[in-house]
């Protein structure tokens, strides 16, 4: 109104009446920074840290039921039976005959060319495939009767029998085959040492940074001792790896819901190392099984023997995939995957943002002792990050933390991947079974499908039960928030 009292303008209201967003979230003062005015000078504010004003949402964990898991001895027995069936199928694919022809045809009167099969090689492969079963029997005997005479007798008889069969088969193979073929017998053991024996990074002693002052004579004098120490360390590490595998069964770590950011990151590091060790074991044993079951018999086939190369290679791939899924299901059970999921929920994740985005939003300096809530913007190493998870204690620039959160923040991701792989294999084998015209193809697919049905049934059972458990409302559990 003209001549009346004027109220504050819209610009004044926006500057004085409304509180700033940085004041609402606690500012950056608690993390080493403050607000700045238009001239660029810092304004010191006595604001509490961000965790005092914004409490992160508590992490709640679902309780999953105890799903039945095959024991070590039962699983090794079933896995050995599966490998024997796959080996039998591969020998059928290589040495099959058309046994239904009349006798006046050149075809044989039997289903296989038994006179072309090398039984020493078959016995050697059987012993190599049974090594895990023998090891499981010895471990069970050691745990049940560690001091009894029966336990020692079982271990002695099994080790003596396996050693005698290996020596007998190797001597006969050396007599009848060339050196090039014999090199294929021990090729996987050259891969075992770097994969399974040197997984303990804590044993690697770094070289001193000031070792460049040594003269050439001192290096020459210490060369022999250095080589001898390396050889001694190699054999000691190999023996310790075998002893740990013999004495310590695979156990699942525990999760204590730590509240300290350092303890959370340390737990994640331990779980990463344990997960990598299990994946190495799965990869090595699956490739080892596929090598001795499907590839090694092809290396000892005579040049005059004809076999279907495409079908044999396809069988090799199928054996490797099925062995990989079976070992992963056993070594990464639902309890273990739930443990990784709980640790990933406490770890959190940071999303890297582009420069210039969120320029008007409050930004903080990342601190390793702070639990950051969801949606907070932090700066570290001249980069801007946004908190993604409800709890965020991960290092923003650490790629391994982001990978760990991506893999395990959804508890059913690994199980869904295994179901997708095994379901695709089963569907392809059913399609091949319907399209097969040869008797050996029909027999091989029918036998392998029986084994795959059991693995797929276990995966689908776990998926249905865990899907219901994780979708159940957390408030109905009556759990405490960690």
Short recap of the structure:
The chain is mainly alpha-helical and 482 residues long. It contains 17 helices and 6 strands.
What does this structure look like?
By secondary structure, this protein is mainly α. It contains 17 helices and six strands. The strands form two sheets. A four-stranded mixed beta sheet has the order 3-6-5-4, with no helix packed on it. The protein has a two-stranded antiparallel ribbon with strand order 1-2. Helix 14 packs across helix 15. It starts with 9 loop residues before the first helix and ends in an 11-residue tail after the last helix. The relative contact order is 0.12. The C terminus is likely disordered.
List the strand order in the largest sheet. Answer: 3-6-5-4
**What does the main sheet amount to?**
4 strands, mixed
Structural class: mainly alpha
The proportion of strand residues reads: under 5%
Overall average residue pLDDT: 75
Uncertain runs are 5-48, 199-223, 244-249, 476-482
The percent range for helix content is 55-70%
Total strands: the figure is 6
Rg measurement, Å: 32 Å
End-to-end distance: 60 Å
N-to-C SSE series?
HHEEHHHHHHHHHHHHEEEEHHH
**Shape call:** elongated
How many helices? 17
Notable traits:
mainly alpha; 482 residues; single chain; four-stranded mixed beta sheet; disordered C terminus; two-stranded antiparallel ribbon
């Amino acid at each position: 109104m003209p001549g009346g009292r004027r109220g504050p303008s819209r610009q004044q209201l926006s500057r004085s009446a409304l509180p700033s967003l940085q004041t609402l979230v606690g500012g950056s003062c608690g993390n080493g920074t403050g607000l700045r005015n238009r001239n660029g000078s810092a304004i010191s504010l006595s604001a509490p840290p961000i965790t005092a004003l914004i409490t992160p949402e508590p992490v709640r964990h679902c309780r999953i039921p105890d799903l039945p898991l095959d024991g070590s001895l039962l699983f090794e027995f079933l896995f050995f039976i599966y490998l024997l069936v796959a080996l039998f199928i591969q020998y059928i694919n290589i040495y099959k005959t058309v046994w239904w022809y009349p006798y006046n045809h050149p075809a044989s009167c039997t289903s296989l060319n038994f006179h072309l099969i090398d039984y020493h090689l078959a016995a050697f492969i059987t012993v190599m495939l049974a090594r895990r079963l023998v090891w499981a029997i010895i471990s069970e005997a050691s745990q049940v009767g560690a001091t009894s005479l029966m336990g020692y007798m079982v271990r002695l008889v099994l080790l003596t029998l396996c050693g005698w069969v290996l020596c007998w088969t190797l001597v006969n193979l050396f007599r009848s085959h060339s050196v090039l073929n014999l090199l294929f017998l021990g090729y996987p053991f050259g891969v075992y040492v770097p994969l399974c024996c040197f997984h303990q990074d804590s044993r690697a002693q770094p070289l001193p940074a000031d070792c460049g002052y040594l003269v050439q004579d001192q290096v020459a004098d210490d060369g022999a001792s250095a080589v001898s120490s390396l050889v001694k360390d190699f054999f000691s590490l190999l023996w310790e790896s075998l002893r740990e595998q013999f004495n310590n069964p695979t156990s699942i770590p525990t999760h204590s819901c730590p509240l300290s950011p350092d303890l959370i990151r340390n737990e994640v590091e331990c779980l990463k190392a344990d997960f990598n060790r299990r994946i190495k074991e799965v990869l090595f044993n699956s490739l080892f099984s596929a090598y001795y079951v499907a590839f090694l018999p092809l290396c000892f086939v005579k040049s005059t023997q004809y076999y279907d190369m495409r079908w044999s290679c396809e069988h090799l791939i199928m054996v490797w995939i099925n062995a990989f899924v079976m070992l992963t299901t056993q070594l990464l059970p639902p309890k273990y995957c739930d443990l990784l999921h709980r640790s990933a929920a406490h770890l959190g994740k940071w999303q890297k943002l582009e420069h210039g985005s969120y320029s008007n939003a409050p930004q903080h300096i990342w601190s390793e002792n702070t639990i950051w809530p969801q949606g907070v913007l932090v700066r570290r190493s001249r980069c801007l990050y946004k908190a993604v998870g409800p709890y965020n204690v991960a290092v923003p620039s650490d790629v391994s933390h982001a990978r760990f959160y991506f893999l395990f923040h959804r508890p059913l991701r690994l199980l869904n991947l295994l179901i997708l792989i095994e379901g695709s294999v089963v569907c392809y084998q059913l399609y091949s079974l319907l399209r097969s015209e040869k008797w050996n193809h029909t027999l091989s697919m029918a036998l392998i499908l029986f084994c795959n049905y059991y693995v797929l049934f276990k995966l689908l059972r776990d998926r249905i039960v865990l899907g219901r458990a994780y979708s159940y409302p957390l408030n109905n559990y009556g759990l405490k928030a960690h």
